[in-house]
Amino acid sequence: MFPSIDQTHHTSQPHHTVTTFNPSKKKFPISIFTLIPAILLVALIFVGVTGAPAHAGVALSPARDHASLPPRAVAVIRTYPGGFPCDTTLQACLSGSTDGDNVQIAPNTYVTASLNITRAVSLIGGGADPSAVKLRPTSGRMISYSGVPLTATFVISNLTVENGNAGGSSGGGIHVSSGGAPLFYSIVLSNNTASLGGGIRIV
Comparing C-alpha atoms, which of 106, 42, 102 is closest to residue 78? Predict the structure, then answer.
């Protein structure tokens, strides 16, 4: 007689048991779709490192191209009284400035000849408020802007214009005849007279 086989202790192990599911060690199949984001990331890093243009037909200018460009004019902040050309009169300071410059006037009361401004410059009082810088003409109106294109990028600010007198003309304090006007900000016009526009006249 053949011995009996106890099937409760001896069973054949099927081949698929090597892939028995273990909750702590999940395995997922790798699909090409899961690799697409990684491929794109690598491509973007490669483009950034190599300096390749992001769009076809757009070339980056090499650094040597910028060196061949002419230098741009830089606006100058001038202080009156100060160094040349602002070491004598306020008129000399304004006449010696170039378009785009800012002329800052130190706190004081200035009795001076009428100012004729033919440059696109800004005139700014350097005090804490408009009363710190006072401009008074020896005669006639105080300030004239003439023959110079002006926009609101140029300012007259933080000062007082007083005692200007244009007589039978217009603009006793400030007269602008340049086809535009500066930005008037935080200014005081006091005791200026004219036939039209005692304080300011823009034509």
Answer: 102
